Amino acid sequence: SGSGIDFDTRLRRRRQMGVRDGWMTWDSQGGGDPPPELWNRVDGGGVAAVALQETRAHAPTGWGKKNVVFSSLGTPQQAGVALVIPAWVFTKLGAKVESTEQKTIEGRCISISLPLLLPEEKTPRRLVITNVYRPVNASEKPEFDAKFKETIREWGIGEGDIHICLGDFNGTLSPLDQLGGGQSVTDPGLASISSELSLVDAIRKAHPEKRLATRRGYANQRWRRIDYIFHQIPSGTHVKTLGVRFIPSRSDHHYVVGAF
Question: Which one of 84, 100, 144, 253 has the minimum C-beta count within 10 Å?
Answer without folding.
Answer: 100
